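Tip: read the tokens left to right.
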């Protein structure tokens, strides 16, 4: 069974039962470098327009050699873009965000629209061109190399809400949105156009799935009310999905959101989203038994392995138990792509990464 067939079978897109739960994972730079050295493969980094996404779309050769059933591709910076150093280790990305590395992430330390307060301010701001030369050169290369054997996910994350507030700052975005200021709608229009431009090109390249995403939840609740999300963002996703399905009727739609966002799952299904990620454990609404009982057969699940506490703990026995229990609940009737609930960060040992992969590969369905 090829990796692509394993994923398509799990998602009920082809006949036949997968031999085991399919697997996907992302690695931070430190772990990518470690496993690249161990495998004798030079990591191939594809610099994304937003730095943290780099590690989603890089090193497909390393991840497939390790056991991933999926590759992830997406937009890189334009071919003529040059990183500018602002000061010390702070750089300017393609959106004009000042970016500074932290222990686990690259943080936005200055937003280009932090002072925005009018339609004119948004009209003056120049978005990057989603169709810029070179943006999908590496995606095309990896699709040609891996697309027949592996399930291809096209990543268009930081899709609307999260990209917009990264341009302004969270407080600077949330308060005007709650007050109904018109410039917020124009900003959202521009972010939607950017996101659709990326997604359109990936759909045309023939990816198997498009991965939209933004973090809408905290550990206990949503960042904005479900009603506000339905008013401000649901129609935008609905129209994008309809247009993308006309371009590529077979493409699956994945929606990512960290946090307690279970109140939106019915909306996701209504919009035509077929896969919900990352099914973050340890937040309200993510109990696997309850999810399968309520939504099994209506939407597929992707993720679920605890990356906050379990993987960093080094407890291999607990990891094995968690994988076996989650597979027995979520994978028994298909509909599940097993993965950590986030990019695996540097607080996870290489041994735990390898144990996770081997435990999943040992499961028989």
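Filled-in amino acids:
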């Amino acid at each position: 069974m090829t990796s692509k067939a394993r994923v398509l079978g799990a998602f009920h897109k082809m006949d036949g039962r997968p031999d085991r739960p399919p697997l996907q994972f992302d690695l931070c730079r430190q772990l990518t470098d470690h496993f690249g050295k161990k495998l004798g493969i030079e990591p191939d980094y594809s610099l994304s327009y937003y730095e943290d996404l780099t590690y989603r779309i890089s090193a497909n050769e390393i991840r497939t050699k390790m056991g991933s059933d999926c590759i992830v591709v997406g937009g890189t910076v334009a071919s003529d873009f040059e990183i500018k150093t602002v000061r010390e280790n702070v750089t300017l990305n393609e959106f004009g965000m000042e970016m500074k590395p932290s222990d686990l992430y690259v943080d936005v330390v200055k937003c280009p629209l932090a002072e925005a307060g009018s339609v004119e301010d948004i009209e003056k701001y120049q978005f990057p061109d989603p169709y810029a030369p070179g943006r999908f050169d590496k995606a095309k290369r990896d699709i040609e190399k891996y697309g027949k054997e592996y399930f291809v996910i096209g990543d268009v994350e930081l899709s609307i809400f999260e990209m917009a507030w990264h341009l302004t700052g969270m407080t600077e975005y949330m308060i005007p949105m709650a007050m109904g200021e018109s410039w917020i709608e124009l900003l959202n229009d521009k972010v939607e156009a950017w996101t659709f431009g990326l997604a359109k090109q990936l759909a045309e390249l023939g990816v198997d799935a498009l991965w939209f995403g933004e973090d809408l939840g905290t550990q206990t609740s949503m960042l904005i009310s479900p009603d506000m999300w339905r008013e401000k963002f649901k129609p935008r996703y609905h129209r994008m999905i309809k247009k993308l399905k006309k371009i590529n009727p077979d493409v699956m739609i994945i929606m990512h959101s960290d946090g307690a966002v279970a109140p939106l799952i019915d909306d996701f299904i209504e919009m035509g989203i077929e896969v919900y990620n990352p099914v973050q454990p340890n937040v309200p609404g993510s109990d696997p038994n309850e999810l399968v009982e309520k939504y099994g057969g209506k939407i597929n699940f992707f993720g679920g392995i605890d990356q906050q506490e379990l993987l960093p703990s080094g407890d291999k026995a607990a990891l094995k138990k968690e994988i076996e229990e989650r597979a027995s609940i979520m994978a028994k009737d298909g509909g599940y792509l097993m993965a950590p609930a986030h990019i695996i960060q540097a607080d996870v040992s290489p041994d735990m990464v390898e144990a996770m992969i081997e435990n999943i590969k040992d499961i028989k369905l």
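The first strand starts at residue 70 and ends at 74. Residues 21 and 331 are 6 Å apart (CA to CA).
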